[in-house]
Specification:
Layout (H helix, E strand, L loop, with lengths): L2 E6 L3 E6 L24 H27 L4 H22 L3 H25 L10 H9 L9 H4 L4 H8 L8 H21 L9 E6 L6
Antiparallel strand pairs: 1-2, 2-3
Helix pairs in contact: 1-7, 2-3, 2-7, 3-4, 3-6, 3-7
Length: 216
């Protein structure tokens, strides 16, 4: 997830790895088949901008945090699937299908679970194959230098509930509840992946890349 920015001469271009909204970005331009936004009040429009910016910022942070983390090759299998679970949850919610909305809760649980397990495994600890987010958080907190607020994961459905949702069972959730669950998960995963150890900070890093003539 990178952004093309200004050109440097005729054959080089700056590329940014963003963790925030850049000055030249209008988040409303990202809406496909957008409704008549002029019908919205200034307050509603401002709230919409803040919501989109919040979701985008957290997803960008997750991407850069995972990309820059010092992980052994075996752990890349875990790290690469975290954004995939979140993306799958979005598609499930947007389907407006009750069964797939249930599945979104399972996908989100897996994304949070894997973020916690990455912290544990990066520090050569055993996550004991647990799926309970509270217990995983406590295991992570036993690692020197790791201080997580486990209240942030206790608000999500339990592992048993997430498993039931996987099969379309358990509690029924509205579309708005599923959306709120996704938004909360993005914020939590962004904070968890930030804890991962890394040699270099890549937040909003910019690189000057030579562009081949056929790519212009």
């Amino acid at each position: 997830m990178s952004i093309d920015q200004e050109w440097e001469g005729d054959d080089k271009r700056w590329i940014c790895l963003p963790i925030s909204i850049q000055e030249n970005e209008n988040v409303l331009d990202w809406i496909k088949n957008k409704p008549n936004l002029e019908k919205m009040s200034e307050t509603e429009l401002e709230n919409l901008k803040k919501l989109i910016s919040n979701i985008a910022t957290n997803n960008r942070a997750i991407h850069v945090n995972l990309m820059s983390a010092s992980l052994e090759q075996a752990l890349h299998k875990i790290s690469h699937t975290i954004p995939a679970h979140l993306e799958k949850a979005v598609h499930d919610i947007l389907s407006l299908d009750g069964g797939r909305i249930s599945t979104s809760y399972w996908e989100i649980h897996l994304a949070i679970e894997k973020a916690l397990k990455l912290i544990i495994l990066q520090n050569k600890r055993n996550h004991q194959n647990k799926h309970n987010l509270d217990k995983l958080c406590k295991i992570a907190n036993n690692i020197k230098g790791v201080t997580l607020d486990c209240n942030i994961v206790s608000k999500f459905p339990s592992d048993n509930e997430a498993i039931q949702q996987r099969y379309g069972e358990g509690s029924s959730y509205t579309i708005q509840e599923a959306i709120d669950n996704y938004i909360s998960a993005c914020a939590v995963i962004a904070s968890l992946t930030k804890v991962l150890e890394r040699k270099f900070i890549m937040n909003n890093a910019r690189f000057l890349i030579a562009i081949p003539p056929w790519e212009k």
